[in-house]
């Protein structure tokens, strides 16, 4: 009887397998959905960080938009050029020359340079501080509470002495900091070279008023615009024509940097090899770590 | 007892009193996982109801005709090899789990293809939870509950037929849908609440689920009360009928 039981068990499962396989096979044929195989291929080529830098919720949505032809292949700033090339190959299109977008902080004032600062004791975010008047004299410049620092997933922007400073070696250009800044002083700029010329001020007021609130703010003198036609004065601020900008015209630009009375036109970006070599001998200052021997408050309460 | 009455009581029992989620605590995974929006939750409830019905149909058929001792199909085949008396004692209920999982997995596959073809947005919002219906214990639980009413029942009249089994499955699914939709409604409102930090997220969801389960305990006893009322009225009719007959005779 055991053999019969075993045989029946095997037969039952085999019979069910045959019947259900037949039904599922029929269903698979009837309910087939045509999915573009390129979507899966594009998705594999994307970094999968789901950062939203391209403007879509995640990598999958962007992949679908690329395959549908609604979006260019080079919008993924995290993947960069390699990713765009891979996507272009999948989609069978030629890749135009593309520069990575990197944030530029249009403010150059550290705590020591800002005038008219008040003792702000509210919530320590730029968003909250921006609602209050007279946190600092300049109503355009960086507040230094680090909303951008918290928005960055890649640890690439830090508030150094009250000024947001981008670490271009870590930055992938997702644009989260530019979205987080309530004063909109971070702009995403196409970096044609490793180092780019930038205007480090956003103050649109006339020179006298800028002088009253900041030691380094742009006074709108127009010296840069007189030397190079790359600059155009708009709202008391020089605007750099990045379309015409090319890394080759550096000599003329060095002159502009020197001429600027407030030293508000500077090169930002990754350090060059020469600069690294120049500063190689300098010792890094020792990082001070909290020591409980000196920081613990052991005073007694005597009431 | 009246057959229709029995069906009614099984239905109410499965949907409200012995709700799969809130009384037996099976199927918690999708209950927590897919209850963010009412629309998605309702879709999930419908998918589970559909799968549970198919699985119950398959498992009832297989159990009745193959698995139970003396099942028609298996004993008919066994009689070719052994005596009829021994063949009627062959017990294949050891196969129940594997066969039920088999049936559930197949019906989930079927539902997945169907939803993907005809409801692409629903398919998107389900995500990984649609294939996970396979491991939804509510469905296996329903199959095992049905098996419990077929195998090992002494009185042959008490053995469940297909109608009762399907009623249990469908109303069990309806009960699951009710529970998950209520939960999704609460969670949609919960998004606007100022919840203390440690309770945010999964913690408050589980607390809400517990309170909901306690609320559903209020249905306890509805079935016996209903049974009493409905059977009593039949009894009264019979008595009145007897009385009338009696009077006529006089």
What's the tally of helices of chain A? Answer: 12
The largest sheet of chain B, given as strand count, sense and whether it forms a barrel, is: none
Strand content of chain B: under 5%
Could you list the spans of chain A in which at least 5 consecutive residues all have pLDDT below 50?
Answer: none
Rg of chain A: 29 Å
Query: Structural class, judged by helices and strands of chain B?
Result: mainly alpha
The number of strands of chain A is: 8
Q: Could you say what the CATH topology of the largest domain in chain A is called?
A: Alpha-Beta Plaits
Q: For the record, what CATH class of the largest domain in chain A applies?
A: Alpha Beta
Oligomer: heterodimer
How many domains make up the coordinates of chain A? 2
Order of helices and strands of chain B: HHHHHHHHHHH
Figure out the total of helices of chain B.
11
Q: Radius of gyration of chain B, rounded?
A: 22 Å
What do the pLDDT scores of chain B average to? 85
The biggest sheet of chain A amounts to: 2 strands, antiparallel
Shape field of chain A: extended
Q: How would you state the average pLDDT of chain A, rounded? A: 83
Q: What strand line-up does the widest sheet of chain A have?
A: 1-4
Quick structural gist:
Chain A has 303 residues and is an alpha+beta fold. In chain A, 35% of the residues lie in helices and 12% in strands.
Question: What do you see in this structure?
Answer:
The complex is a heterodimer of chains A (303) and B (250). With 303 residues, chain A is an alpha+beta fold. Chain A folds into two domains: 55 residues, Electron transport complex subunit B, putative Fe-S cluster (3-methyladenine DNA Glycosylase II, Chain A, domain 3, Orthogonal Bundle); 178 residues, Alpha-Beta Plaits (2-Layer Sandwich). In chain A, strands 1-4 form a two-stranded antiparallel ribbon. In chain A, strand 6 and strand 7 form a beta hairpin. In chain A, helix 2 packs across helix 3 and helix 2 packs antiparallel against helix 4. The longest helix of chain A is centred in the first third of the chain and has 29 residues. Chain A is extended, with a radius of gyration of 29 Å. Chain A starts with a helix and ends in an 8-residue tail after the last helix. By secondary structure, chain B is mostly helical. In chain B, 70% of the residues lie in helices and 0% in strands. Chain B is built from eleven helices and no strands. Chain B is globular. The mean pLDDT of chain B is 85. At the A-B interface, helix 1 of A face helix 3, helix 4 and helix 6 of B.
């Amino acid at each position: 009887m055991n053999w019969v039981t075993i045989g029946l068990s095997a037969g039952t499962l085999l019979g069910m397998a045959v019947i259900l396989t037949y039904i599922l096979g029929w269903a698979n044929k009837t309910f087939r959905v045509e999915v573009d195989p390129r979507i899966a291929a594009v998705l594999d080529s994307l970094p999968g960080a789901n950062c939203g830098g391209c403007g879509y919720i995640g990598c999958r949505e962007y992949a679908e938009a690329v395959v549908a032809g609604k979006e260019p292949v080079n919008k993924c700033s995290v993947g960069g050029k390699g990713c765009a090339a891979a996507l272009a190959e999948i989609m069978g299109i030629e890749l135009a020359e593309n520069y990575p977008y990197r944030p530029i902080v249009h403010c150059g004032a550290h705590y020591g340079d800002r005038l008219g600062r008040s003792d702000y004791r509210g919530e320590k975010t730029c968003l909250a501080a921006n609602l209050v008047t007279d946190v600092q004299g300049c109503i355009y410049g960086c507040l230094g509470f680090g909303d951008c620092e918290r928005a960055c997933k890649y640890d690439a922007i830090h508030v150094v002495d009250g000024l947001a400073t981008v670490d271009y070696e870590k930055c992938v250009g997702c644009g989260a900091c530019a979205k987080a800044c309530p004063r909109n002083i971070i702009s995403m700029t196409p970096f044609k070279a490793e180092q780019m010329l930038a205007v480090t001020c956003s103050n649109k007021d006339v020179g006298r008023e800028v002088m009253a609130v900041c030691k380094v703010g742009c006074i709108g003198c127009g010296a840069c615009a007189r030397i190079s036609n790359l600059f155009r004065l708009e709202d008391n601020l020089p605007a750099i024509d990045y379309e015409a900008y090319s890394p080759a015209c550096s000599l003329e630009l060095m002159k502009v940097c020197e001429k600027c009375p407030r030293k508000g036109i500077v090169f930002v970006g990754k350090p060059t090899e020469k600069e690294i070599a120049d500063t190689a001998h300098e010792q890094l200052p020792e990082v001070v770590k909290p020591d409980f021997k000196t920081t613990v408050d052991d005073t007694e309460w005597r009431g | 007892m009246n057959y229709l009455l029995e069906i009614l009581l099984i239905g109410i029992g499965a949907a409200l009193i012995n709700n799969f989620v809130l009384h037996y605590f099976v199927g918690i995974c999708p209950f927590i996982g897919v209850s963010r929006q009412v629309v998605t939750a309702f879709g999930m409830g419908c998918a589970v109801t559909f799968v549970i019905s198919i699985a119950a149909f398959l498992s009832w058929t297989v159990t009745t005709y193959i698995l139970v001792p003396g099942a028609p199909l298996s004993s008919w085949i066994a009689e070719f090899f052994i005596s009829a008396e021994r063949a009627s004692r062959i017990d294949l209920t050891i196969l129940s789990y594997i066969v039920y999982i088999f049936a559930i997995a197949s019906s989930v596959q079927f539902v997945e293809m169907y939803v993907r073809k005809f409801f692409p947005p629903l398919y998107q919002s389900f995500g990984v939870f649609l294939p996970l219906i396979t491991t939804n214990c509510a469905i296996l639980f329903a199959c095992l509950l049905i098996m419990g009413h077929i195998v090992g029942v002494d009185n042959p009249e008490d053995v469940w037929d297909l109608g009762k089994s399907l009623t249990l499955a469908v109303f069990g699914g309806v009960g699951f849908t009710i529970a998950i939709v209520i939960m999704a409604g609460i969670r949609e409102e919960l998004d606007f609440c100022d919840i203390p930090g440690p309770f945010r997220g999964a913690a408050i969801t589980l607390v809400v689920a517990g309170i909901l389960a306690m609320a559903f305990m209020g249905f306890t006893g509805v079935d016996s009360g209903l049974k009493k009322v409905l059977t009593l009225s039949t009894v009264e009719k019979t008595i009145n009928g007897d009385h009338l007959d009696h009077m006529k005779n006089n």
